[in-house]
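Hi F.,

I've been meaning to write this up properly since the lab meeting, where we talked about keeping a consistent format for the predictions we share between groups. The idea is simple: the sequence comes first, exactly as it goes in, then the structure tokens exactly as they come out, then a line or two of notes. No screenshots and no reformatting. I'm using this chain as the first example so we have something concrete to point to.
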Amino acid sequence: MSELTIQTLSLPSAELGAPSPLPPIHRRRPPAPSTFGADLTDDLRKRMAYGHVATLLPYQMQDGYARNYSHHAHPVAVLENHWMRAVFLLNHGGRLWSLVHKPSNTELLANSPNLTFCNLGLRNAWFRGGVEWNLGTIGHSPLTCSPVFAARLDDDPGQPVLRLYEWERLRDVIVQIDAWLSEDVPVLFVRPRLINPGADAVPMYWWSNLAVRLTPDMRVLAPASGMYLLQDAQQGLRYRPVPVWDGCDVTYPQNWQKASDLFFDVKPGVLPWIVAVTADGEGILHLSEESLPGRKLWVWGASQGGRNWQSFLCPEAEPYIEIQAGLTRTQLEHIPLAARSDRAWVEAIGYLRIDSVQTHGLDWDAACRHVEQAIRELLPPRRMSAASQLGAGRADRAPGSILHRGSGWGSLERHRRALEGQGGLDWDAVPFDDLALGSEQEPWLRLLHEGAIPTAPPLQPPQGYVVGDAWQARLERSLQDAGKGTWLAWLYLGVMQWFSGEDAGAEASWRRSLSETWTPWACRNLAVLHWEQGRMSEAADLMLAACLSLPSQLELLIECGTALIEADRSSAWLDLLASAPKAIRTHGRIRLLEAQAALKEGELHTVEAFLRERIVPDDLREGETTLTELWFELQRARWGDRIRVDAHGGIEEFDRAQCPIPPELDFAIR
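Output, unedited:
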């Protein structure tokens, strides 16, 4: 018998904060061609060039977090039988937080003693641990720190199914994950399903990322004879036979010095799996149908930067690696999801006990054959086929009850489609009911049913952006019919126009918004538009005006500081900080921007004081080298010609030895 219950998990948790009111209208750059490398086929290059997004709209960034911990009672769904206990975080993307193999009392996943947010996600906030369901585009999931729906299906007595689902707004698709346990095999089955109800194909991306505790002499195996490695963005992906790279067996994670992405080249026709096996022969297995062929090993590496990042993500947690499974061979690719179609597959995650002499002592091919035999004994192919048929047979069935609600965006989409007579989707399987609707959807419900966007106080942060042709056409008609709109309606229209590539229209709408009622929000949007166009002087003036009207708005202040420094107006930034609220001035990112401006103004004592305190901003971005650059720029300012620079502008190794960066500030990982 299996049980499905809703419980609470008490966990010390950082403060996530409200979503940023500033729409993400800085255009994202696609991966540089150099990242692709020289060893790739034309077909692989084509998929790598396809589907990258220029913006995360309509999502808002989640960058207001702080490391102020308190005990939170997190709602969780718990699936349990005599073999396994699986715990899912319902307010954090449905993350599989814990998976315990009960007969051996083994926690298969690396998780954390607390929830700490860091800047690794698409929307900034991200946390380590568990199994993350990544979709949309490269960079984790836009839903990873957001609530999702959870519902219960009862197909057979004693066999409940947990259904997680949500409306994914980057691609306008539904993600549905059915999870269940079986009485005859010690694994958790999950069946992700991506549904595109639209009239056009959309680029799609999926990777299931499993965090695994790193132990000495752990080995990661997958059924591949070749591998792609990404260590250095300049060299790009390179292809070699598994398992040796530059004289080192890279299937042992502890052998890596640098952070690395290792993609196993699993060929068509091979049942895809990946395992991480300890020296004692205990392992975690991920197995899937052939339609999920990608397999990857991620390591932070043993460098100072890699060790710092592991500690920064959660100081009390043990080192970890990730084993991952995806729709494509590498994570630089997207594939099309056809109009009015879906794509689904079954994954199995479980405990594997194996003879480590066979996995660690034999050559690669023999070790893989041994693992594959152990997998077939644990989960025969016929059992995987049966799980696939079972999952497909109930995919469109309506759940018996909703256990937890996600966002209101799916409900809003249901309202829009009903009003416009659109079909193409069976909503019964994924019920987005009106109880999920909230303040974010309120302006858009008013537009749908009353024909206009209501006004709002000018200093009230906007929330709940939407984009797309259907919404833009409806809002434009509303403004034409009314002859006059609110400042908020024109602000929203400008965001839609910017998303559609209509920069001139966006500028006109934001100026119209300012003429209706001056707000820092439209002023800031104009500043970013000029910034992106290289008109830095105008951008700085507008950003400064926006900031002066709302000096306690952290995201606005950070963006203002960045713009003023880039516009060579560091002194204006320092003057603004002098009058900023003290609570804002002590924020790590603000302190870093203050130090960067002070360096440009020759105020070296301020830079030295910042570096002496060993401040690391809570929102330090993965791959960001600002602290390293600030340290060496200070040394250059202090020592001048005694520091030599190579032809590419980097500090030579000889000179690094003369002024080594303090280890606490070294976050360089590649």
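Notes:
The longest strand covers residues 66-80.
The CA atoms of residues 227 and 240 lie 6 Å apart.

If this format works for you, I'll send the rest the same way.

G.
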